[in-house]
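pasting for ref
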Amino acid sequence: MQERIEEWLQVQHLWIYMEAIFAGSGAIWRVLQAEVKRFANIDRQWIEIIKAARDNTNVVRLCCMDDKLANLLPQLPRDVPEVPERVQRGQRLDQHPP
């Protein structure tokens, strides 16, 4: 259960950061269309997880529910502090920086 809570916190931290980058920026949408679509998919999955948490307040049951959270974590970039610079350069987020 501790591992699941840590995954939750990691995904939440990364999602908050990415949401601030991709929400509402038309310039980013035009330059990084694939990344915007990728984030939209991540966003949809995260919202489903949040709704499940809202509907199921039993933490033990929620943590053992399924692997949606564990499956979402690898989709998020690990180098979060570098994301704004990579976005400015137009570099895809699934590519490693040079």
